Amino acid sequence: MTRTNRTLTAALLGAAVLGAGAAHGAEDPQVRVWAAACATCHGTHGASAGGVPTIAGEPGDKLYKLLQEFKDGSRPATVMHQHAKGYTDEELQRLAAYFSRQRP
Amino acid sequence: MTAFNRRDFLKAAAAAGALSLTACATPGSGKPIARVVVIGGGYGGATAAKYLRLWAPEIEVVLVERNPAFVSCPLSNLVLGGSRTIEDLTTGYDALVKRYGVKLVRDTATAVDPDKRQVRLANGDPLAYDRLIVSPGIEFLYDDIPGLAGADAQARVLHAWKAGPQTVALRKQLEAIRDGGVYALHIPKAPYRCPPGPYERAAQVAFYFKQHKPRSKVLILDSNPDITSKKGLFLKAWNERYPGIVEYRPNSELIDVDARTLTAKLVSGDVKADVLNVVPPQRAGDIAKQAGLITANNRWAGIDWLTTESLAVKGIHVLGDATLSAPGMPKSGFMANNHAKIAADAVIALLTGRAVNPSPIIANTCYSFVSDTDVVHVASVHKYDAEKKTLVAVQGAGGLSSAANELEGKYAHAWAKNIWADALL
User: Fold this and answer.
1) Domain contains B53
2) What residue range is the signal peptide (chain A) (predicted)?
């Protein structure tokens, strides 16, 4: 499958099948299923149904910085510090990149 | 269709025509590559059905559910406290059908034939499957409580541990008692569904009594030797918010119940109440038992946490409260929703010949309301340990609220909205 084809397929799946969300077809399934644990609070693909911040479509470096600040305790939080501490830096980086590619 | 207009779409569709079946099968176009049947549309099953379709539209998904709508157990104690109605906690299955193409069968699964790969239904024709996901929740072990054997006794001494008519009926019982009456709540030995749930319930009933029947009492009869979840936070809430109303009695093992006189017969003696609420001991739902999935203590279904596949029967995955919990893992709707995502990903991998994710990471957070607005939580993150071959709670992650607070009350409602949408909308 060429690069164009893959993008095209992704766009087809994204637009035709789901009508929402992003390029699922092209996603690495491992980070996709890790990110799905965040979706329980932040909404499917990180697009919130309300009340918890939407994290879909935010710049990856911004998300990573926020997650690092939760992890090291420098950012006040009710619960995110306790979740962020469960992940390695590399896992947080991949999660941040994943959510940056999702549609809010 | 936003980014694509119709002409672009048709061009792209033509260009994509030569791609593999897996990549371009869409609902209604092309034959499904496999059929997954999901039994049970609770937090586990509904989430699994949606995510299978989201991630693999080339797979046909049939969801078997006997109830007309989903009613959330989380937040159902607020119906007892009076700040929410059961309608607030109810979501239909229509979006799963219309938006995601899940095929919904309103029926009860009565048996599984793993050799023929078929699910038998109470009313409809048998359903064939390539892989089966069983998410049946819990069944109550009334055998241990002879006095609750009949339907009349069970209608008088409620569990209200499956949200729905029982929740509403318990609220009515609370409304009917006199000021100065006693509400007694019996808690079974752990493990049971929703570890902090009984203690939250005590706070919610006390919240109602404090406003409307201030001379009444909440008596917690716990089979366990101590409060099993958020101990300090609940003790503080009961003592500071509901002094003289809530009383906690550990080691209150139940021998039997007299439903006529509303008496709990405990090892430590008899306790008579005006409303007696007994949460019976539990096991995995009936279909798990029927299908031979129970592997532990005659109660729970052991699974491989990499895939959620049953340790007893190949081709069948089990989710949620019915599973033999991994270490440090509570039986919660949050966990069931997270089990479902491991299951959806693994089922797709197994059906398409891709490698199964070797390192799942999932999480839990249980919010408990100690009033109509104030909330405490317990959180944990669970990672697969390849040596121990199970999910384990990550050391240093997770934890508790420092104190009950209103901000988390807002987040708890927001969480509910998001998990309901994540599972059903």
Assistant:
1) yes
2) 1-25
How far off is chain B from A39, nearest CA to CA, in Å?
Answer: 7
Interface contact A57, partner B, CB < 8 A: no
- CB atoms A41 and B365 under 8 Å: yes
Amino acid at A44: T
Q: Are B350 and B131 in contact (CB under 8 A)?
A: yes
pLDDT beyond 70 at B341:
yes
Q: Is some CB atom of chain B closer than 8 A to the CB atom of A48? A: yes
Do B335 and B205 lie in a common domain? no
Query: What is the rounded CA–CA span in Å between residue B305 and residue B311?
Result: 10
CATH number of the domain enclosing A66: 1.10.760.10
| Residue B146 and residue B271 in one domain | yes
Helices marked H in B146-196:
151-156, 165-176
pLDDT band at B245 (very low <50, low <70, confident <90, very high): very high
Show the domain range for B347. Answer: 34-140+284-356
- Judged by CB atoms closer than 8 Å, whether chains meet at A51 and B410 is answered as yes
Which pLDDT value is given to residue A26?
60
Please report whether residue B302 resides in a domain: yes
Total-model pTM? 0.91
Cβ distance B399 to A82 less than 8 Å, yes or no, reads yes
Does any CB of chain B come closer than 8 Å to the CB of residue A21? yes
Q: What is the pLDDT of residue B411?
A: 98
**Which residues contact residue B18 at a Cβ distance below 8 angstroms, ignoring those fewer than 6 apart?**
none
Look up residue B404 and give its two tokens.
């009950």
Q: CA separation (Å) from B142 to B145, B257, B343?
A: 5, 11, 31
Residue in A with minimal Cα distance to B345: A33
d(CA A74, CA A68): 9
Tell me the residues of chain B between 403 and 422 that have a Cβ less than 8 Å away from chain A: 405, 407-408, 410-411, 413-415, 417-422
Cα-to-chain-centroid distance, residue A19: 18
> In this structure, is residue A14 part of a structural domain?
no
CATH number at residue B229: 3.50.50.60
Q: Is the pLDDT of residue B380 over 70?
A: yes
Q: Is residue B303 part of a domain?
A: yes
* ipTM higher than threshold 0.85: yes
Contact B12 A82 (CB under 8 A): no
Interval B172-187 mean pLDDT: 98
